[in-house]
Amino acid sequence: MNTKRKLKVSVTLAPDLVARIDRRAAREQGTRSQVIERWLRRAARDQARQELDSEIAAYYEALTSEQQAEDAALAVFSGKAARELDLDGPPPPRRRRRG
Asked: What is the mean pLDDT of residues 38-57?
């Protein structure tokens, strides 16, 4: 995790949630703070993903029909180009420069 100095905070939690935290900490041989920090980081990451997904959806929903057609054409082109790549094969021979 983060090796920077951490802040100490106080929160009030329901007893059933504290029991879940304690069970997880015991299972992972960690502390309550470690469990809570992992859970909060995961929740923050998931929230950021959801916000990004919403922003992407809004972007595509706002495209004009002309922009949608251009996007579809680019998708077809890039798909064809990607299929022509051979990433697992040997690299193509290098051409010598003529000086």
From this structure: 97
